[in-house]
Design a protein that fits this description.
Elements: H1 2-24, H2 29-32, H3 35-44, H4 52-69, E1 72-80, E2 86-94, E3 98-101, E4 104-107, E5 115-117, H5 125-135, H6 152-158, H7 163-169, H8 171-206, H9 217-225, H10 234-252, H11 256-288, H12 294-352
Parallel strand pairs: 1-5
Antiparallel strand pairs: 1-2, 2-3, 3-4, 4-5
Length: about 350
Amino acid sequence: AASADLGRLFTAARSTAGDLREKAQTSPVTAQVPERLEQLGAIADNPALPSMAQLEDLWFLLVQDMTATGRVARFEAPITDIFGNERSAELIRVGDFSAFTADGYVLLPEGGTVAQLLPRQPGGSYTDAAEDFFAAEPGSVQPALIDPSRGRLLEVEADRPTLGERVDQGGVVGYTILAIGAAGLLLAVAQLVYLALVGGRVRRQLDATDQPRDDNPLGRVLGAASDGTGSDDPELLELHLSEAVVKETPRLERFQSLLKLFVAVAPLMGLLGTVTGMILTFQSITLFGTGDPKLMAGGISQALVTTVLGLCVAIPLLFLNSLLGARSRVLVQTLDEESALVLARRLEGQGRA
């Protein structure tokens, strides 16, 4: 019975050593204590009964792994950079989850003992958190990124394309859509500024309608009524005022037709990119089959990105065009109302005469 119990004990010891070694192969703790892989292998792969010293080592390694999970450690260790060169660097290990240097996050390759610098670092808040944590004073409280997969999720996040890379996936069609959007935005902003300036001058002119000025549409319309042309004939005066209003309208409604064209063209360009991307995808399927999805990713990315770009350009331009239309209609309505008021006053004056 005692022999059977010892046999089960030694089997459990080898099984525990094997499980711990499998976990340690991707653990950042191994970068700090690389010799533990060899110690665990000596127990797990040894067909003979483990010695008392090996059992004590196994107990010590189990306790070491448990305590390391809840600690943050700073240590010197060899790392491999993105060019494959090995060098010594200062590492910070956050429990059994993440490790990073001053240059970014590192990953322990499975079965290795030398940490590797991620060839592509995750952007945004991830890298900022590592830099702030690395520069923090000892004993201070600082948030840190915890990766339960020991770096695998960081690799996925690092491979996520940036905004510029997503735009680049749209190809020529995508950049054409962006050029249309930029041109439409510049025209809309320029016209909005023009209408704001004109609106201010018109409001000032409303306070002094008896002194028309040439720096605003209303002043020019009022000036056309006071230049003496057709002043004795109401019908000629009305035509003269209408002509003056019509002459001012194109400036107030400038670029609106062009913006409507941009709003219509942008989604159509996105549809063109979608069709082009699907053609590329089917060509890849024809040449290489469907075994490797990455071969089809380029065409699918172009198809989706151009569609998104077309909508992202068309929707803001549609709102801007509506805003321009509303602003210009208010000014044109003001010109119509004031010209009608001038005509009514002239008729009233003739009636009294």
